[in-house]
Structures are given as structure tokens and as C-alpha cells.
Amino acid sequence: MFDYKLLAALAAVVEQAGFERAALVLGLSQSAVSQRIKLLEARVGQPVLVRATPPQPTELGRRLLNHVQQVRLLERDLQGQVPALDEGGQPERLRIAINADSLATWWAPAVADFCAEHRVLLDQVVEDQEVGLKRMRAGEVAACVCAAERPVAGARSLLLGAMRYRALASPAFIARHFPTGVTPAALARSPAIVFGPDDFLQHRYLESLGVAGGFVYHLCPSSEGFVRLTSGGLGWGLVPELQVAGELARGELVELLPERPVDVPLYWHHWRNGGELLGELTRRLVRAAERLLVR
């Protein structure tokens, strides 16, 4: 039989990225958290954490974390059915991995009513849409929004829709770098803006235009900062059209190749045994995506 106090310590260390913060969340001393991890490892007969910075779960640790995520959600269902089990009516916390562009555009209107009605607090882990699924695989989150279709074991995947990206730049940048017009070769020679090392959207865009090889670019790991750098004339970039309607209307940003938008599919991944709360969130997201995303 599992000792869930030990599993809670494992979850807290991974979710809080260290023993010190985990101790604060659990209301324990750091040494007490460490002892619980050691006791868990003694009981299962192998390590559950790699002592790195931040600590990382082992393969067994990931399986235990996946179990903890699902148990938390099922406990919430049971408390709703048996009010006497509610130990104080604290809001439920859902930990979700999501890409920065979704967080900056359609996510808030999609989940605001759900969180208010069900008294849910969200821990949102920002990851590029290409790699967000790794957080579920590691057992760190209950669900994620990402571009990968294939779910991890024990989870479901559902296509929500797509985010449409357009290649944009400021008028000053266009005048400086494309005086005779925008061509694929000129794009490759001009500074681009890339979200982070896991973001290959601009790379694939240039490849689709027949441009092979590398290109120069700024790195900007902020969705809002990305738009500011683009409108400030530092480079060109692929930006969600949901995010820049105002800038386009005011002429602060101009589309470089209007006939070549990029649609990035977004999938919602969630645990099969995630309980009614996660099921209701899934239904809300599907309805919101019909209004907010490209179908």
C-alpha cells in the first residue's frame, strides 16, 4: 500500500523544483522532506529522484508522479460526492503545461469561468508547444497544450484547433532590409526573432520557402516581448494573428508574405483517469476552441 505522504513529498520536490520550496509548500522542514524521499526510495527499492538542479524524477519516479496526479483529481470527485471528506474546502490546484502564445491569447477567456465556478487554481508551466508533452511524461502536470498529437501512456489527446501565425515586421525593418521587396533569400539574410532553442517555427517556415541552411536570429523567450521586439524593428518573426490585431490595424506591424500563413495545431492532453474536474475542463476547452482557434 502506498504512503501518500511520501508520494506528496516527491510531487512537491519535482513541482517546486527543489527541496527548500517543497518544504515551504508542505509546511515541513527541508530535512523532513528529504527523509520522506529517502523512505520512499527504501520502500520501492530504487531511486525516485536524480539529485540534480532542479531534481529530476527517475523512470520509476515519473510513474509515481503520474499516479499522484490522477489520485488528486479522483479525490476531488470523491469529496464532491461525500462532503464529510472535505477537509476545509480549499481550492483545487491543477498543474498544466501550456505554450506561451496560447497563454498570451486565447487561454484566459477559455478557462476563466471554469476556474471561478469550480474553485480551481492553476499552476501554469510555460513550455514551447513543440516540447510541452515532456512535462506530462515526467508526471509533473495533469494536462498540457502542445503541438504533439500522440499522447503519453495513460493519457488522451484531443485536437482543439490551430493557431494561425503570420510573418510580420515593422515598417522601418521592411524599409531597411527589403527595399526591393520581400523574397525568401532576403528573409534568410535578415535578423529573425525566435522564441527559444526549442522553437523551430521560423526554421520550418524558411525551409517551406526553399531556403536551406542557417539564418541569424534573436532569442526572446517571452510572447509579449516577442511582439515588442518585432514592432520595435529588431527582426521579423512569426506571430499569432490573435495577438496583434491592434498592431496590424495601426500599421505598427506589416505582413511580409500574406499568402503564406502558418497554422500550428494545438492538442489537449489529459489523463484518462483524471476525474470529472479534468473532464469538465476538457469540455470547456473544446467549446472555447471552436470560437477562438482556426478549425
From TrEMBL:
SUPFAM superfamilies to which the protein is assigned, alphabetical: Periplasmic binding protein-like II, Winged helix' DNA-binding domain
Domain HTH lysR-type: from-to ranges: 2-58
GO molecular function term, any single one: DNA-binding transcription factor activity
Keyword line: DNA-binding, Transcription, Transcription regulation
Keyword Transcription: yes
One Pfam family this sequence matches: LysR_substrate
UniProt xrefs under InterPro entries: ArgP (IPR017685), ArgP_gammaproteobact (IPR023490), LTTR (IPR050176), LysR_HTH_N (IPR000847), LysR_subst-bd (IPR005119), WH-like_DNA-bd_sf (IPR036388), WH_DNA-bd_sf (IPR036390)
Function comment: Controls the transcription of genes involved in arginine and lysine metabolism.
Subunit structure: Homodimer.
Family: Belongs to the LysR transcriptional regulatory family.
Protein name: HTH-type transcriptional regulator ArgP
Species assigned in the record: Pseudomonas indica
Encoding gene (name): argP
